[in-house]
Design goal:
- This protein is α/β, with parallel strands linked by helices.
- It has a single domain (4-237), classed as TIM Barrel (Alpha-Beta Barrel), CATH 3.20.20.70.
- It has eleven helices and eight strands.
- It has an eight-stranded parallel β-barrel, surrounded by eight helices.
Length: 238
């Protein structure tokens, strides 16, 4: 079975917000991506509003039910938006002020565990699947299962930033072991962060891998090839 593709369209909104214009519209981008073969649309709602706005979440969930995968932190504000607009699934991610992008998996302090468990329960009551963005470490996978997650998204940052083939292979082994454990615990396995047209195939080939969530590489490729072709090329790799 082919691995599914979630296309993150945050950077379409980044371009729009650079001029505070009405275009390019993430809704239009979502329609194009899905028509070109994407399985899901991924958007990250951030409190600072640097790209995706609350109105984008509302419209995307309205027009593309069962196709929106919302990334957000475990803050009350983010939870409120998720519960109100009811995307198909929510990936709870860490979020730090000033970060360029999400830098790694969740840090499961006791306070964070308690907060996430509460959020997972409320999202489930609305019929929303829950994913946790984690490092590919056995203890993190087990924690995700204990907190009631349906899905784990394994952070591929260390793999994507490997500086040698040997280091990349070591990171792939970590991802493979984490994916195997997640499947044994009944979790669906996704992966994302820094994946592109050159490095994605090795991760997609990991046993049990269900979905790749990719944004920056596809959107930048679309500047030269067009968005439909950029999505189609990535989908073909998977």
């Amino acid at each position: 079975m082919k691995v599914q593709l979630g296309v993150n369209i945050d950077h379409v909104a980044t371009l729009r917000q650079a001029r505070r214009a009405a275009f390019p519209d993430p809704v239009d981008a979502a329609a194009i991506c899905l028509s070109a073969g994407a399985d899901y649309i991924v958007v990250h709602w951030r409190k600072d509003g640097r790209h995706i706005q609350t109105k984008d979440v509302a419209l995307l969930c309205k027009y593309f039910p069962k196709k929106v995968h919302l990334e957000c932190s475990y803050t009350p504000e983010a939870e409120k938006i998720a519960l109100k607009y009811k995307p198909y699934s929510v990936c709870i991610v860490p979020e730090q002020p000033g970060e360029v992008t999400t830098m790694g998996g969740l840090n499961f302090t006791p306070a964070v565990q308690k907060r996430i468990a509460q959020m997972v329960e409320r999202l489930h009551k609305k019929g929303i699947l829950v994913s946790l963005f984690i490092s590919p470490v056995a203890d993190e996978v087990r924690m995700a299962a204990r907190l009631g997650a349906d899905i784990v998204e394994l952070c591929t940052r260390d793999y994507s930033e490997a500086t040698s083939p040997k280091q990349a292979q070591r990171r792939l082994q970590e991802l493979s072991l984490a994916a195997l454990l997640a499947k044994e615990l009944g979790l669906e396995v996704h992966a994302g962060h820094g994946l592109d047209y050159l490095n994605v195939l090795a991760v997609a080939d990991i046993g049990g891998m269900r979905c790749m969530n990719i944004g920056f590489a596809i959107i930048t490729r679309s500047l030269f090839a067009g968005l439909p072709q950029a999505v189609e090329e990535m989908k073909d790799l998977l």
